[in-house]
Amino acid sequence: MPELPEVETIRRGLAGELTGSIFSGVEIINESSMPESSSLGTELLLDQEIVGLRRRGKVLIIDVGKNYSLLIHLKMTGQLILERPDGGREGGGHPTKAMVSALPDKSTRVVFDFSDGKRLFFNDQRKFGWIKLKDRGEVEQDSLLMRMGEEPLEAGFIEEVLRKKLRGRKAPIKALLLDQTTVAGLGNIYVDESLHLAKIHPETKAIDLNDEQIAKLHSSIVNIIRTAVRLEGTTLRNYLNHRGEKGGYFEHARVFDRTGLPCPECGEEIEKIRVAGRGTHICVNCQRK
DNA sequence: AAGAGACCCTGTTGGC
DNA sequence: TGCCAACAGGGTCTCT
Question: Which nucleotide is nearest to A107 (CA to C1')?
Answer without folding.
Answer: B10
